[in-house]
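Structural biology now treats backbone shape like a language. To illustrate, our science desk offers a sequence and the tokens encoding its fold:
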Amino acid sequence: MPAQPGSGTIYAMSVWLYGVGLRCARHSRVVIAVWLVLVLAVFLAARVAGEQTSDDLTLPGTDSTAATDLLDERLPEQANGTVPIVFHSAEGKLTDSKNSHAVDSAVSALRDEHEVRSVVSPLSDKGAGALSADERTGFASVNLRAGPSALTEDEADAVIAAAAPAREAGLQVSAGGYLGQKVSKPSTHSSEAIGIAAAVIVLSFAFGTLVAMSLPLATAVLGLLASLSIITLLGHVVEVPSIAATLGTMIGLGVGIDYALFIVTRYRTRVAEGLERDEAIARSCATSGSAVVFAGGTVVIALCSLALAKIPIVTMLGFSAAIVVLIAVAAASTLLPAILSLLGSRIERGRLPVGGHGAKDERPHGWARWADAVAARPWPALLVAIAVLIVLALPVRDMRLGQQDVGQLPKDTTARVAYDRLDDAFGPGQNGPFLVAVSLDPPAHSDQKKLNSLEANQQQQEQAVELGEAPPPTAAQQNKAEQQEKFLKSSASDPRLVKLEKQIGNDRGVESTSEAAVSDNGRAAAFTVVATTAPSAAATEATVRRMRDHVIPAAEGNGVSADVGGTTASYIDLADRISERLPAVIAIIVALSFVLLLVAFRSVVIPITAALMNLLSVAAASGVLVAVFEKGWGLSVIGLDHTIPIVSFVPLLMFAVLFGLSMDYQVFLVSRIGEIWRERTDNRYAVVHGLATSARVITSAALIMVTVFASFILNGDPTVKQFGVGLAVAIAVDATIVRCLLVPAAMVLLGRANWWFPAWLGRAVPRVGLETEEALPEPAMVVER
């Protein structure tokens, strides 16, 4: 038997939201004014402050962070490595008089730029390795004062602008590394416009009037504007990842429109039943609004739970997305009731030639027939749904977590241009060099033995020239000898360093190593290693692991220890850490969701089945993600030309977002079924009628969210594309296969067991009464004024 409410039962959430909705409706002008003032204030503050983002990959306890920490302490000028400013000549060589003058002028201007610590020209002896074999492409190695976390977009623009002399002379100039990536973020405006346009179409069919259709859009956009402004301001206090705003836009548009859609739909139904305007608003907030608050709270908790992974970039992405959802819930719960009250009967104005479902049409015949069919054949429905989800999930077994692929950015971005030029001229590994940090105790010293030998050889050569026994050395030979002598006199010639560089350079995955830079006290050194393969390639990951596990240990000892750092190695460490923490985070989110659904539905069985179904849904979406991006199924359709790994933090973020969002539809569907069950205690009737009356609004909401997420596939950032594909597929699968097939079939088969709730647990768990009006006062039925 269902747990029936006693006479003293208080549905705290419904009662509280009823009061909030009523107050907002009765003071509509004040509420709207407060919202507008607050949104305008944070928007202007954000515009004045400007954007500050940081893709911090620091992970305490990892090899890459150990390398950074060592260099920060002992050799800070090498801690961030260098970034390339790439010069390319379409006509002639860079060594030609005109072009060489342009490169020299650009390098000189770069040296004068405040944010630049040092520059090595590709036309200098030290930078000879930065000039391609055909001498048409070269790159200046620029050492910046600010690292990836501290560099602002304005500072990056200033550094790139300093290379103007080369650009004005007709050379193609582009910036790579973290400098280029800072200014190569593709715009989201087209995706936002397409997402909103698609939402307009769906809302038009759902509501049938221009005014009603515009309400979810207005509240969603206003809430999104506020949340993005807050995230921008937050970036000046903590390190907010660069993708946070784009991810927030995707989620904010989707949930903001969805939440408003549920409340407006319930409001129109109540008005059509004869309730007075403000009373209809208050009851809509108490019923659909309570489901919105509860579902949104679940999303926020799931996103905040990512902090338990203790990965800074993931934690901040979770927090920033949670802010967006929280403000979307606040807008739907307070701003929307105020606007509904201000509009009154005008919400039905502007009849559209599409849609126009009547507000009382709660049980569309098509969904009623579907619900009856599922209930009549629950086993086939259940098995078909599970089979489809398993098939979709199968590719997830081959998931490989990796890093963002700059080589898939739009071809007109400076980071992509630099990537392609370096790839063509120097090989793919030049786009993601490793940074090896070396600790030396005792300090590094010059190789005196080899220096003495060199000096002796030089004396013999000079004597042979004087006696006419040998020709004088050429300019090239003289230059080479001078460079060798200079090297041997420096601490970079320490035999221990030379041995380490040689060991690494002999690895099959290494193209080249640079000369080590040594600290003044000789206790630290750093040098770069260029791989033979692209930064995102599996072979590059294997090279890093081989260096760490075998190559470097073989060269360590005698006071030498080394760590592999740099962006490429940091992403490998990030993937490892996420793989390690993912099971625990999943378990925590599932457990929290179970507790929340236990409280919401006062059932033990429903939370268990919901968790299992949500896991299947997320697995199916992840499988599709792997099939598209790693196996290349339909890759060209989404604007990519080669396969790429799944960016390491995407699955973790996607799981939290999807597990939270899928609870939205679970709450709206099962709360409606539960309301009917409490009235009639007929499980089959409750499932059929609950699905028939809620499926249309659920599928409409899901369609909006799917189109919003899918529109971001058009974004040029491959990481954004992965979020777009994953989230769109997951919501589509969840709202159709799971909510309209798997859930009703399972609930029909389970029968009364769905509502099993031990008496002892019933006394301990509070009642929140989602989608119920049992604790509300009797409404006065009046004609709408």
